[in-house]
Amino acid sequence: MKKIFLVLVCVVNLFATPLEKLVIAGPVATVSHPFFKMIESGALSDVAKIVEFRLWQNPDELRAILLKNEAHIVAVPTNVAANLYNRGVDIKLLNIPVWGILEIITRDKNIKTIDDLKGQEIVVPFRADMPDIILQAIIKKAGFDPKKDFKLVYAPTPPDAMQMLILRRADNVLLAEPATSMAMRKTGSFPLKLIAPDIYRSINLQKEWGRVYGVEGKVPQAAVAVVGKLDANIAKRVEEEYAKALDWYISNPNEAGILVAKNIDFFKADAVSDSIANVQLVAQNAFEAKEELEDFFKVLLELEPKLIGGKIPNSGFYFK
Predict the structure, then answer these.
(1) 76 and 9 share a domain?
(2) Mind listing the pLDDT tens digit for each residue in 88-108?
């Protein structure tokens, strides 16, 4: 009995020793926002003495962070995670919190479906990124050719796409929240109202996905993933606290907006608050979402195999 007690004490002490630093990397997008609450509240103090958030702004920065082993946890588009995994990067999905943040904003309130935009120009931020991928999949499933039936114009970044809309250089722009709510705020405020006519949330891409594919209107767009050999206990704590922080984010939009704006200069607090009512957020365990992820990956495999590294990831892709 004494030996068993000593073993249990050792195990408890092992788990009680926190990391010197836990590094989380993510984009400016909604998927990263709950991390700010986790850090501010000290939610992970039992597993790490310091929790640091590192911003990545494009896929190249993300790859550099991963190749240099500079993060333990990353927030990442699901297809990018699949691509990296299939290329040999030690990355495993922990949960899928983002199921809908994309909309096409237009100047024409009569536009309701992708069919209504045939023959028109659509400005899209980042070629081959998640918004572009989902848009092209919808266009093809609706029976159109993205290159022949639409004019897709690519902007360098979401802020660039948003500015094109605000300054009347584009009539139809694909944006992700909170950028969508920022555009709505800016065009409804003086003095920009004088130069930017009313704009409308015309096509919710998740609902449109559901319409053309005949499924529920949601898409597993962004994930929280583990990088390298992170202790399972720490990963579990991250998943637990992320879910709590996401619930707080959804339930407290005003406070969440202030917190995000404090951490990301680009966003205004009121726009972030507005955005929360227009997104689909559920922190679902990645393994439990495996079927929905694989259905999504099958679409991407047909659209362009290299988007996910040429094949659907095997079961090792999911953190257990």
Answers:
(1) yes
(2) 999 999 999 999 999 999 999
User: Do residue 147 and residue 249 come from a single domain?
Assistant: no
**Within a 13 Å sphere around the CA of 272, how many CA atoms are in the beta-carbon half?**
27
Q: In which region does residue 17 sit, left (phi positive, over 0), alpha (psi from -120 to 50) or beta (all else)?
A: beta
Last residue of a domain, one of 193, 213, 233: 213
CA distances from 248 to 27, 30, 43, 226 (A): 20, 13, 13, 23
Which pTM value belongs to this model? 0.89
Whichever domain contains 83, its CATH number is 3.40.190.10
Tens of pLDDT, residue by residue over 116-142, are 999 999 999 888 889 999 999 999 999
Which residues form the domain of 235?
Answer: 2-100+221-317
Contacting residues for 165 by C-beta, under 8 A, at least 6 apart: 105, 123, 173, 175, 183, 187, 196, 199
